[in-house]
Amino acid sequence: MAREGVWLVAVAVALVLLQGVSSQQPDTLCGECDKSKCPPKEDCPEAEAVDSCGCCVVCRRSLGQRCDPKPAAGVLYGPCGEYLVCQTRLDIASSDEATCQCVQQKEVCGSDNVTYTTMCHLLEEARVQPNLTVQQQSPCLSKPVIKTPPQSSKRQLGGILVLDCEAMGYPVPSISWELYKPDGNTIKLPNDDSGIAVQIRGGPEHHMVTGWVQIMKVTKDNVGTYVCNAENSLGAAKATADISYIGRENEL
User: Residue span of the signal peptide, if any (predicted)?
Assistant: First the structure.
């Protein structure tokens, strides 16, 4: 029992000593403050701040710039600016490299009717446009725009054809397809023709939607003008593709 008591006392003493070393570690790494060694005064894009060792006045770091994630690691770059937080990069394995990232990862609409990825991106642009302000805490409203229209094509009878259409807007538009046939009839797609498939999905970018029409077998009955319609609450846009065939019907 005596030996066990001595061992417990030794452990307690060791823990106290370790805590003392730990509490002194930041000061040891930072060293004594010598203001004569501080970097020269400069015009700061962001506001000024005292460095992580509490010694020198430095410029706050901007979006995407290197920063000091751990004050105890000493001063290398400086603290981040307004609306920014210093985050260690996750795309580099076993790295302590950190950059300033926006605290709020949300799109905002500027007074210039441009959608900015975050508030921080808008503030960066405001350095160039001093009158730039936040118009709303969401993407800017916009009518649909066809970013990638379907392409006109001539295909061999019996061949396969895929048409695609990408539209962008906010609110995100919906896409629909129509076929204007040579005889003047209009067919909304999809219909009961099992040889024509329609697919819609979101993306590939923010506020974008993509639609496809796949013609399993080109015939004289499914050629004509294919129309991609994009629509949201603010308006509509459309794009067309003329599809014709090569060859004779009896070649099928």
Answer: 1-23
